[in-house]
Amino acid sequence: MSRPAVDRERLDLAGTRDFGTPGAGARRRERLTAYARDVLADVWRAATPPEGVALAVVGGIARGDSGPLSDFDVVLLHDERGSSDLDGLADRIWYPLWDKGIRLDHSMRTPTDCRAVATADLNAAVGLLDVQHVAGDALLVAQVRQGIAHDWRSNARKRLPELVASLRDRHIRHGDLTHELEPQLKEAAGGLRDMTVLRALAATWLADRPHGAVDVAYDRLLDVRDALHVVTGRWRDKLSRQDQDAVAALLGEPDADALLTSVVQSGRTISHALQDTLRRAGQSQRARTLRAGPRRPLLRPLGHGLYLHDGEVVLGRRDITRRGPLTLLRAAGAAARREMPLGPTTLANLTDPVPALPTPWPEEIRDVFVDLLASGEGLRAVWETLDLAGVIGSWLPEWAPVRSRPQRSPVHRHTVDRHLIETVVAAAGLRDRVQRPDLLLIAALLHDIGKIAGVHDHAAEGAPVAGNVARRMGFAEADVETITLLVREHLTVVDLATRRDPDDPATVAALLRAVDERPDLLELLVALTEADAVAAGPKAWTSWRAELVHRLAQHGRAALEGRWHRPPEEVELLRDDIRARVMSGAPYLALVPTASGATIEIADRDRPGLFAECAALLVSFGMTVRSARIRTSDGIAHNTWRVEAPYADLPEVADLERRLREGVPHLARGTRIGAPIGSAPSRATLVPGASDDALVIEVRATDRPGLLGDLGQTFAADGFAIRSAHVATYAGQSLDTFYLTREGVTPPDVARIIAALIDACDGGSLVSG
C-alpha cells in the first residue's frame, strides 16, 4: 500500500542532505511549518468561510517546530453568535486534510469554550498558550490567546501543583529519557513535552526559563525526531533499537551509542532546567503569598559563609568574594548532605569561570571532595548540577568519555556516569565495613571509568586511568596502587562467587591472590562488589548472588586468619532416617523457602542421569535453577538446589516426591526444536586451574526449557559425575559452570565432552513424546 502523497511531499521537503549540518534543523522546521500553514490556508480559501470565524493552530505548527510527519493541531474558532453552517464549514476543512493523509487533531470552539476547556483540562491549557492565527478573523484568535494567558497567570497558584502532579504521572508512564535504551522522545522525562511545560511555566510570570544550553538540547531532540520520521517514513516518537543505526547515520553520528549519548545529554539538560524553573516558580509564589511588606531574607547559617535560604544552599552576600574550588566543594557538600539544591546565583558565582585545581590536589581539597562523595542520597542531584555546570569535566577530564554513555546490558538500568554515582551512593552506606572509606568511595567513583567505545575489558582498561586520577588527586602511591587494584578486580568477587564453586579451595585461593592476601583489600573489594551490584539494579544483586558473594568472602576471611577448611561432605551429615528411607528405595525431598525462591534438598540412590532427572523435575514445576550442589557417598546422592519461582508458586514437597517416584517425563528422543534464530553460538570451555580435584567446564548457550537436563544427560552418557553446578541466566543467555569428576580423564576425553555439550546446546530442547 503506497503512502499518502502529502507524506511523501513533506518527507521530500524535509530532505536528507542537510541533517547534521549546524542550523539546518531550524531551517528545515521553518520550511515544514510554512508548508503546513500554506496547506491550511489553501483549504481555508477553498472552504469559502463566512465572517466571524477563524482557523488557528496549536502544537508544533504554532511553535514553529513541526516535524516531517507531525500532526496538524487545528482549532476552528467562531464568535459567540455562531453560524448556521459551522458543521458544513468544518467538513469542508477537515476532509480535504484527511484526503491528503494528514494526521489531524481538530476542534471547533468559541473563545468562551476555549477558556472553559483550558480551565478544566491542564493539557489543553498548556497547548492553547501557543495558539496562533492562520486565516480568518484574527481578532478572534487574539481574544483566545489573551484570555488563556490571563487565566493562566491568574490561576498560577492552583495550576502549579496540578502541573507538578501531571509531570510526575506522565514521567511514570513514559519513563526517563536519560535511562531508556529505547527512549520516548516526546513524553518521557527530559523529552520534547517537558520543553513545552517549561515555556508554560515562564508564561505564569512566576519565573523565567533558562536559555542557551536548554535551547540547544531541545533542537537536538527535534533533529532526532525529524530523522526518525524520515528514516521510518512514519510518525513516531519512540527511538526503537532497530531504527537507531539509521537515525545515527542520517545525523552523522558514528554509531547508535553516540546517538543515544547525545539524546541522554539533551534530556538531562531539559530535565534540570525544568526542575530549576519549577523551584523558582514555587519560591516566587510563596513570596507573593507571604509578603506583607518589605522582608529580609531568612538565612540559616551553615558555616564557611554558606546559608540555607528558601530550600537552597546559598553563599552570603558578604562572602561572595570567597570564590575557589574549596568554597564550591563546601557548598556542594552542604547541599548534598541536606538533599537541597545549590542556589542558581551561588552556582553561577562559583563556577563562572570554573575554578582551576592544582596538581596534585591539596589535601584540604581532596578531603572535602571525599566528604561530598560520602554525602549519600543527595549526591545525585548535586553532582548532576556540577556536571551540567562544567565542573566535573574540568576537574576530571576522564569523565567526558563515559558521560551519558548508554549500557546495553540486561542488568544495568543507568548510563555509565549515572551508574558510577549510584555506586558511590551505595558505597557510602558501607563505609563502616572498611578501614579506608575514602579509598572505597574513590574506587566506586572510578570503577567503570574504562567503559568507553572500543574497549573489551573495561576493568583492565580503567585501572591505570583510575590510578592516574588518584595520583592527580594527591593520594599517596600506596593508596594509588590500592585504588588501581580495586578497579582492576572489581568484577572478580562476583565472578568467582557465581561462576565457580565458592567452597572449592582453588576458588578461595584465587580470591586471595586478587587482593594480595591482604584483609583490608578483601573488605574493600567485597564492599565495592556489593555497591556496584546494588547500583546496577535488582537483576544484578539478587538474594542468591548476595548469599554467594558473602559466603565466598567469609571463606576468604577465614583463610587469611588460617582457620578455613573445606566444608565437610554434606552426605555424611544425613540423618539415619533419611539414609534408611533412601536405601529402602524412596527418595527424600525437603523444601525451605527463601527470599527469592527456595532451597530444595533431594537425596536418592546414586545413578547415572540423576542430575538430569532432578533438573527436569524442577523445570517441570516452573522453577529456575540458580545453583546445584551434589554430594555422593556410599551409593547415596544428596543434591542441594537453589531455585527461583518467577512464574508460579512453590510446589508442595509431596508433589515433587510423587513426580520423582513416578519418573519425570523427560524429553523424548528424536524431535528437536532448534535454538532461536540469531542467537549467539554456544560455547563450552575448560577452565584450567579452577579446582585441584575437579574438571571445571563453563557452558554458554541460549537458554531454553530443558537445557540443564540435557547437559546433565550429556555428562552422564560420557561417564562424568557432577560434583556441583553454578547456573546463571540473563537476557536469555545461560552461563553454567560444572565441577566434574571421573577417573582417568585424558585430553581426548575433554575434547569429546566439550563437543558433545555444544551439540546438546545447539540441538535445542527435546520435545515430550
Describe this structure in words.
The chain has 769 residues and is an alpha+beta fold. The chain has five domains: 5-154, Beta Polymerase, domain 2 (2-Layer Sandwich), CATH 3.30.460; 158-290, Four Helix Bundle (Hemerythrin (Met), subunit A); 396-560, Hypothetical protein af1432 (Orthogonal Bundle); 581-654, Alpha-Beta Plaits (2-Layer Sandwich), CATH 3.30.70; 667-769, Alpha-Beta Plaits (2-Layer Sandwich), CATH 3.30.70.260. It is built from 30 helices and 15 strands. Strands 8-9-11-10-14-15-13-12 form an eight-stranded antiparallel beta sheet. A hairpin with a 2-residue loop joins β10 (624-633) and β11. α18 packs across α24, α23 crosses α25 and α29 packs antiparallel against α30 (747-763). It is globular. The model is unreliable at 1-6, 667-678 and 764-769 (pLDDT under 50).
